[in-house]
Amino acid sequence: MSQATTVAPASPIAGVGRLLRSPLTARIASYLFLLVAWQLLSLYEDRFPPPADVFGFLWIEVTGGSHGGIVRGEFLEHFAATLPRFTLGIAISMVLGIVSGVVIGGSKIAEALLKDTLLMLVALPAIIWAFLTQMWLGLGDTAVVITTFLSAFPFVAVNVVQGIQAVPRDLRRMSGAFHVSSYRRVRHLLLPAVTGYLFAGFRFAVIIGWNAVLLGEWFSSSEGVGYQARYWYDANRYKGFVAWVILFIGFIVLIDRVALVPLQRRAFRWRDTQVKQAQRRVEGIDVAVTGA
Amino acid sequence: MATLRVEHLNKTFPAIERGSDATTAIDDLSFEIGGHVFVSVVGPSGCGKSTLLNIVSGIETATHGSVSVSEDGSPARLGYVFQEPRLLPWRTVMQNMLYVLEGEDVPDRARDYLRMVGLDDAGGKFPAQLSGGMQQRVGIARAFAVEPDLLLMDEPFSHLDAITARSLREQLQGIWTEAKKTVLFVTHDIAEAVQLSNRVLILAPGGRLFADLPIELPYPRKASDTEVAMAQAELLRRFEEMQEETDAARATDVAS
Ligand SMILES: Nc1ncnc2c1ncn2[C@@H]1O[C@H](COP(=O)(O)OP(=O)(O)OP(=O)(O)O)[C@@H](O)[C@H]1O
Ligand SMILES: [Mg+2]
């Protein structure tokens, strides 16, 4: 046919249209929507501080300015208290989660013995651990770290179990037929197959663990992000409370975007090429169809 | 080159669920092959061909009977081309080759055999970036690269397009004549079996050996050669005989 293909020429209007439909625009729109909804809500409910108040408070908190009187912004101090507890809790969860995941995933008996317990742990909310560790251990770092660890650990273990059980049988048999050494099998077959699941487990652990550290500090600490949220809550200063909740959420979103997602992308280069390949194929078909 | 001895081999898969029957995949199978031979095993789908290769390679165990592979008395090295490529998807083609290779000059060897299957440039690519046919060729290169005494091939060309399959069949004859390997080749394609092998084993459903036929024609053979076509007709006749027999057996089974 002599008709031109429907591939759009690069006009500015088409460019704007594409921008409007881009995922970035959608994400910005979702933030704007939240802000507007928040603003509207604060108009009708006095105890719901408007965004401007909260962000003003946040600014003082982060820059270390004064809230009036002797109370000063203490952002850095409290994050400095929370981060080591969080990191330690996550580190222990990863180590014990991988070990127990390998054991449960690798042995039928261990699976029968432990898998249900693991699922119960997954279902147990972090706040239960926060209460229990406070009862057992009182105030202090240990209670917070243990709350973090106990809440995050089952997610790591469950994911590792799944990863190990998902190693393709065909590839295991191929390795057997070629008498590949166990070292190579672990390095080139088991680990890459488990990586995806381990990443999922790690991401869960970070998110769940961050929630748990907040709860742990709410009940068992006199410093840290969770304690700070409670401090403003108990003082009936809702904008302070909301500001710390925002700091708390902002931190985890940032960690996810800046560290976890790129890391994951790098580890899955082999799979991304597959996706790109498939996309190219689809585009190829599009061109063939419109060009016909 | 190796000697493969299969004696009274039986493989029964236990019933998966209660109430269903156990499956006999191989039933009292005996044969011996050795030296510079290319032996094909043909038979209908489900007659135990892949199971046979799995037992020979050691990834499946026999229920009864024995299988031994030896090379001058010592254990032989095996290469296996599977029905599917079976490549590690998260490793490049080159890394996939190195995964199974031991010893010196390993990268050179890997490159040589990739060149043999026409994939010199694919070493740095991931399997997902290759076509199905190219992936299968990597699988073939991998099996040759271990320089096996006995090479097991399980319908290696059945997933490929006719043109690629034809050219690989011709290449395979060349490599086999030159590299002097013992090959056990599984297929359900009679024409392919006749073109490639100097001996054909016909398996009947249930994994019984139905016939053991020599094919004495000089290499290289083309699918279009008259002698090859005649041998094909002969083999096809035996195959039909086997099918009539099993159909008759099934009919009496049903009647009784
Ligand atoms: N792991 C298994 N568990 C139970 N039954 C099995 C198993 N593997 C194979 N079988 C059965 O054994 C029989 C032979 O299977 P096999 O894969 O060897 O057939 P095949 O001759 O290779 O067939 P095809 O030409 O379709 O590849 C079939 O009936 C199959 O259902
Ligand atoms: Mg098969």
Molecular structure report:
- The complex is a heterodimer of chains A (292) and B (256).
- Chain A is 82% helix and 0% strand.
- Chain A contains twelve helices and no strands.
- The longest helix of chain A is centred in the C-terminal third of the chain and has 39 residues, at 182-220.
- The radius of gyration of chain A is 25 Å and the shape is flat.
- Chain B is of the alpha/beta class and 256 residues long.
- Chain B has a domain at 3-77 and 182-215 and 223-255: P-loop containing nucleotide triphosphate hydrolases (Rossmann fold, 3-Layer(aba) Sandwich), CATH 3.40.50.
- In chain B, the strands form two sheets. In chain B, strands 6-7-8-3-9-10 form a six-stranded mixed β-sheet, with helices on both faces.
- The longest helix of chain B has 30 residues, at 226-255.
- Classes of the chains: A mainly alpha (292), B alpha/beta (256).
- Chains A and B meet through helix 8, helix 9 and helix 12 of A and strand 6 and helix 2 of B.
- The complex binds adenosine-5'-triphosphate and magnesium ion.
